[in-house]
User: Fold this.
Amino acid sequence: MVKGPTPGHGPLTGVRVVELAGIGPGPFAAMLLADLGADVVRVDRPGGAGLGIDPAHDLTNRNKRSVVLDLKSDEGPARVLDLVERADILVEGYRPGVAERLGVGPEAALARNPRLVYGRMTGWGQDGPLADRAGHDIAYIALTGTLSMIGRPDEPPTVPANLVGDYAGGSLYLVVGVLAALQHARAHGEGQVVDAAIVDGAAHLATMIHGMLAAGSWQDRRGANLLDGGCPFYGAYATSDGGHMAVGPLEGRFYAEFTRLLGIADAFPDRWDLARWDDLRAAVTERFLSRTRAEWTEVFAGSDACVAPVLSLTEAPHHPHLAARSTFVEHGGRPQPAPAPRFSATPVSVRTGPALPGADTEAVAADWDVPALRPTPRD
Assistant:
């Protein structure tokens, strides 16, 4: 694990982003922009976010700066629009209509800055019957069919933390959207609104699966398909010490190596003999239960059998491959995933720790030339 920042600020150096504080996918999207070098100013509200963790440990606020503004006050919206006037991108995650009621909606923002990219992060989207309803990741991926694919067929669907909805279907699509719109704004001088809805992104993630469904090569039920645990050579198996090994040798030559190293090659030479899949699964289960995770890791080390140990969050940074690539870094005494992806000419880095609410007001006021951000001196 690498300690401290690496040189460089990333390909988005010079891009200015205003983030209206929220929870979940909005802050993560803004963090990704900040990791890529953008100057992200987070507008925190007095008292903090409803579900926020201790700001000192909120890694999604790394590489950002913070000011505190009360958008319900007389001056708050005006100060946000002062920042907007100097920004390239704005990111907000309110329910539809809330930003408008606060005076910082797209109409007001684009009037001040016609080149602005106004990124809106929601679960249900800006329109539709559910647009005004509350929701969280699990509901969004449930409605799109995404959740139905995950888990064992004889159990309720497995909840994949909030990675599939909030971050994959939400944050990443918002970032793609605002960067595409920024390209358009710089080419044509025209800003626009980006409506990034988690339901849209989560549905879009399953495009390949929908194609397979249409072709008849995917069954619309859990645990019955090649990539959802239905296949005995694509899944996870317990080891004798309570650990697990992940198995995925889909190609013929990889399957041959897998069964050879596992010790069952002669018994199951044809991986597509569906009539024997239950027997194959039982044999693989029995074999993995005969040794520890560490022992099986050693057996498959250096092979193309597509087998890997299932590591915990605290174990992962110490894996030799991830350590060699500095996939995790340590900054300010906090181990964390390094910025991704990587760039040859404009390297990215963790430059600063989590932005503490209001800690950067003076610096932002000076750098963005918004003197009104500074608190009015008291008599």
Q: What stands out?
A: Residues 240 and 292 are 5 Å apart (CA to CA). The mean pLDDT is 94. The first strand starts at residue 2 and ends at 3.
